[in-house]
Amino acid sequence: MPMIVNLDVMLAKRKVRSKELAEAIGITESNLSLFKSGKVKGVRFSTLAAICRYLECQPGEILAYELSDDDLRPESGE
Hints:
CATH superfamily: lambda repressor-like DNA-binding domains
Number of domains: 1
CATH architecture: Orthogonal Bundle
Number of strands: 2
Strand order of the largest sheet: 1-2
Helix content: 40-55%
Distance between the termini: 17 Å
Largest sheet: 2 strands, antiparallel
Number of helices: 4
Mean pLDDT: 91
């Protein structure tokens, strides 16, 4: 399930540095970096809401879904 994280794009549009965002929403820069790179398995809605509130954007401006062939295969155990 390839989720695309476009947080870098939104940060650039708003002229906000990652460090500034991390401090403003109360997470570490390393956790924000992991999120930006898509290397996390999940994100709390409260964190996503804080990001959107600070950047004045919608979740769909940060996250996107790209269909892949793997998504068409049933999960094991189904």
